Amino acid sequence: MAAVTNINTDQYALLALKDHITHNPNNLLAKNWSRSTFVCNWIGVTCGVRHQRVMALNMSDFGLTGTIPPQLGNLTFLTLVDIKNNSFHGSLPEEFARLRRLKFIDFTSNNFSTEIPSWLASLPKLQHLILNQNSFKGTIPPFLGNISSLQELRLMDNKLSGGVPKELGRIPRDIGNLTFAIALAIGYNNLTGEIPYEIGNLQNLQLLRIQNSNLVGIVPPSIFNISTLREVALANNKLSGGIPSSIDIGLPNLEGLFLPNNNLSGIIPTSISNLSNLVELELGSNSFSGEEDSMTKTLTLATIGYMAPEYGSEGIVSARSDVYSFGILMMETFTRKKPTDNMFVEGISMKCWVEEALPHAVTQVADADLLLGDDDQENFNSNKDCILSILELAVNCSVDLAEKRIINITNVLATLKHIRAKVQKNVRTA
């Protein structure tokens, strides 16, 4: 016969946790977690209205040091536990397996150094498992793929080794493992091997991050067919293969694609320019084909709205296209507008908007805060001249025809230094 539990059970469990705290800044718990006050009024504790039992424990950013006692396994109504940004260490007690209602676990930025505990497989309602920035060791356990309710798995920046379990993407006939997963972030570990093709079975996935590991092999083509994906981050591995020409069809919702520092090859497909939601694209330090003397081998800014026209027609990342992107960034900085803003529609781009305003209507496009300064008329005129010079440089950097564009970023820097010197001279003589 199971023991009867009540709010007193919850109080004893939390007082046991308090006893396991060895460092408590400002005596936060000592002042608040007291037998003389109702447990549901304790800081970090939330109780349910109906049963008056502890449902949530949020101790994030408390600056605590200590261990987790087994008594916490008696908080049987608990649905959320968040202890991120503390210094908890030691083992995670197997009594947690009793917490059958638990949906959310966030242990980010603590000092846990054990293997990922097997009792996690006993939590039938677990939806969010976030264990980033600890020292968890061992392999990513395959049993995580059997938690069918799991929507978010984040294990980044630990000391995990081994491969990526195929079970994370395997769909059994009855209920499909991780069918509901929307986020898989397991980068910054010591992983090895290949990305399993089965990852492509996670058809609800919105975020995939497996960067800064030691993964090899071809990027599974199945990844490029997960239509719900918004971000793919596989940077700093040893992955090979290419980007499919149908990426715009397979990933219509993509907002960020981060693939730098791999061994990818082939032509960068022009269809990338059809990804209307794409905001960030990083492809540098790969082996994409193109003119050998013009290919950039370093990290490259290639963002929709910032990309040079020749990128869309040739699929080539070059030094000239970097200058174009820098010109657009200067416009963004001094107008406080983005090329993706809603005002730039129906053929009116930010570049055209700025170009048409120069030189006489520069005040209509410049950031008003930069123009006004200290509300002094003389400063206003000086600021206007400075912004005009910078925006004229930005327009020259972003000329549509690459051969007419300033091709050397050194020239751009020299011009900016000249503009700065002129401003400083005006300030001294004012």
From TrEMBL:
One GO CC term on file: membrane
Keywords of this entry: Glycoprotein, Leucine-rich repeat, Membrane, Repeat, Signal, Transmembrane, Transmembrane helix
The Serine-threonine/tyrosine-protein kinase catalytic domain, residue ranges: 293-344
Primary localisation category: membrane
Record domain Leucine-rich repeat-containing N-terminal plant-type: where: 8-47
Keyword Transmembrane helix: yes
Topology with respect to the bilayer: Single-pass type I membrane protein
Listed GO MF terms: protein kinase activity
Record's subcellular location: Membrane
InterPro entries attached to this UniProt entry: DNA_repair-toleration, Kinase-like_dom_sf, Leu-rich_rpt, LRR_dom_sf, LRR_N_plant-typ, Ser-Thr/Tyr_kinase_cat_dom
Gene3D superfamilies: Ribonuclease Inhibitor, Transferase(Phosphotransferase) domain 1
PANTHER family referenced in this protein's UniProt entry, alphabetically: DNA DAMAGE-REPAIR/TOLERATION PROTEIN DRT100 (PTHR48060), L DOMAIN-LIKE PROTEIN (PTHR48060:SF21)
The family this protein is said to belong to: Belongs to the RLP family.
Record protein name field: Leucine-rich repeat-containing N-terminal plant-type domain-containing protein
Organism classification: Eukaryota, Viridiplantae, Streptophyta, Embryophyta, Tracheophyta
